[in-house]
């Protein structure tokens, strides 16, 4: 693990700036309360702060690997006492050595003897503050790293869930379309040819855009039109589709394959068993920075109801929950002979 103090020039400059500031404050306090020659005091403070700052940079490495997770509390305290004694001895010895080299003579020895009384408590206080700072920084970085890992894991799980749901929503009508094409090749080859072209258009969309999590509403509607063209060949005039889409809604992104699932559900449960033409109405509009999607389809009350698993609607609801958290609204209800699905999602 890299020393955070040495991880960048700005951090190193900031680190020594703090020590310079503390040295200035310490100088004024000591010169006011302690009767001592200012030249001795100034050089002493410069030396002791610089040496302490350098020693603490080196101390980061052993202290960083001493924690109560890796050793007992008694061993931790004992190791810190040894570390403090080594740190204090090195700091005092080096400071006094440089002072004697700069100010040779007996008068500097008197100053050194008188300064030890306040240097040891200062050294102990500085050591405690430094150790606490290291532990706080260590556990803060560990917390941030843990949150990032959890976030990436959550995103990966969400992506996997969305992919699974999207794959479950792949158009089941393809199998029916192939069966219809097989039948049409005998009774109406031209229609079979048209259906093959429409099916290829639809599959081209699913390859190009279906693998994306979100696509513009305009692209989603283009895919739905290719899908509906195929179903119109199958069901003929039984399908009446009306779309009311606001211009400002066309570029807003929606979950891919969302509308196709709604149209497929409307045809499967509204038109499949009906003997009469049925109507499908799709609306899209933007209000208060939210996109509102409404799908309505009529069905024959007297016709046999096609029993389904409701997997499509369940998957839509789950995808909206995963993609928009609690910001998406999904509702569906039956009104007389009309099935209505209402979706409201945030624009951004």
TrEMBL record:
Residues annotated as transmembrane: 12-34, 40-61, 73-99, 111-137
Keyword Membrane found: yes
GO cellular component: membrane
Segments forming domain Signal transduction histidine kinase internal region: 160-239
This protein's UniProt keywords: Membrane, Transmembrane, Transmembrane helix
InterPro entries xrefs: Bact_2-comp_sensor_kinase, HATPase_C_sf, Sig_transdc_His_kin_internal
Entry superkingdom: Bacteria
GO molecular function list: phosphorelay sensor kinase activity
Pfam families named among the record's database cross-references: His_kinase (PF06580)
UniProt keyword annotation of Aminoacyl-tRNA synthetase present: no
Database matches in PANTHER family: SENSOR HISTIDINE KINASE YPDA (PTHR34220)
Name assigned to this protein: Signal transduction histidine kinase internal region domain-containing protein
Organism field: Lacihabitans soyangensis
